[in-house]
Design brief:
56% helix
Length: 78
């Protein structure tokens, strides 16, 4: 699996959106699981720290959970 380049900090944006939504990692994981995605807390934590690539299905689900626009996930990335 190809890794995200460390200079592309998508994980920081995911964490920022989660905090702006006033949610804990556990709450996000629970919502992802209710949406039928197999995501554990450790997997989600890896997404926020850029140690794991995000799947498109997870990105779509997080967009709905955080009620965010896609460009917010990519803000500041070049």
């Amino acid at each position: 699996m190809q890794k995200i380049r460390p200079d592309l900090d998508l994980g920081h944006n995911i964490q920022r959106l989660r905090k702006a939504a006033g949610m804990t990692q556990d709450q996000v994981v629970a919502k992802l699981q209710l949406m039928g995605l197999s995501v554990s807390k450790s997997t989600y934590a890896k997404l926020e720290t850029n140690r794991m690539n995000i799947k498109v299905s997870e990105l779509v689900a997080l967009k709905d959970i955080f009620q965010a626009e896609y460009q917010e996930f990519f803000a500041g990335l070049k």
